[in-house]
Write a structure and sequence with these properties.
single chain; 270 residues; mainly alpha; two-stranded antiparallel sheet; globular
């Protein structure tokens, strides 16, 4: 089986598992499954950043508990808002500086690993209560990534970050953002996004921000792998690499998406 075929088969299996879990699994099982995925991501992060055995065990346990506690304990999402805000500040304000070489000490610590993984995992667990909305948000990342790939191959001339991810171009990013704008327009025109954070005038800038952050998350993980001398974060997913290779765009976007939904539910819906 070719690498492309492996990627397609794995993607189909993952999508089927995600859809099945969202619509048919009880909430507690969805939460545990998400926590398990992010614990595997924590193991890969620990390997890439050369954590010792005991710190790795502690780190993975803390990430798992942080992801699962809100859903299993029945706590309101307000408990997660500070973590989502912290993650948003890091991804929007600090990670771009790190990628530009102006924040050399950002990578490699357990705290950074927790910020990368825990808020996103908790957001994914919480958003599982609204499957359709969650998939509409996840689709932003998938559409942006897919469109960036094809636009980059067809029109790419100017490298986005040649020392980090040589295949990415500014033209690809622009194509991805354009595709996301079209996607949100279709959602609003058809009434699918009549309610929720993608509704109304705020839907377009939020979607563009999510798409842009997915690129930041991708580049950040690529740089962590490059510093570790690794091509992939792991080998668990045939044709894709490791778990971090698949959730890199989600780690940077889900906290912001969840925070936007929380604000919408708290202040706009009523």
């Amino acid at each position: 089986m070719t690498m492309l075929a492996k990627r397609i088969v794995t993607a189909i299996v993952l999508l089927a598992a995600c859809v099945g879990g969202l619509w048919f699994a009880p909430r507690w099982l969805w939460t545990l499954a998400v926590a398990a995925v992010f614990v595997v991501g924590a193991v890969e992060w620990a390997r890439l950043t050369a954590l010792a055995r005991v710190p790795t065990v502690v780190f993975c346990a803390v990430v798992g508990v942080s992801v699962a506690v809100q859903g299993l304990a029945g706590l309101g999402p307000g408990w997660l808002v500070p973590a989502w805000m912290l993650a948003g500040i890091v991804w929007i304000g600090l990670v771009p500086l790190f990628l530009a070489g102006q924040a050399p000490g950002l990578a490699g610590s357990m705290l950074v690993g927790w910020i990368v993984l825990a808020p996103a995992g908790a957001a994914l667990a919480w958003l599982g209560a609204a499957p359709g909305l969650l998939l509409s948000l996840l689709a932003i990342v998938w559409i942006a990534d897919t469109a960036a790939f094809f636009f980059g191959r067809r029109f790419g001339r100017h490298k986005l970050a040649p020392t980090i991810s040589p295949g990415k171009t500014w033209e690809g990013v622009a194509g991805g953002l354009l595709a996301v704008v079209v996607y949100v327009t279709v959602l609003q025109f058809t009434g699918i996004a009549a309610v929720g954070p993608l509704a109304g005038w705020a839907g377009w800038p939020l979607a563009v921000l999510i798409a842009a952050l997915s690129v930041v998350g991708d580049l950040f993980e690529s740089l962590i792998k490059r510093r570790a001398g690794a091509k992939d974060s792991g080998t668990l997913l045939p044709g894709h690499g490791g778990v971090l290779d698949r959730i890199d765009g989600l780690t940077s976007t889900l906290p912001v998406a969840a925070l936007a939904l929380y604000v919408y539910l708290s202040y706009w819906w009523w």
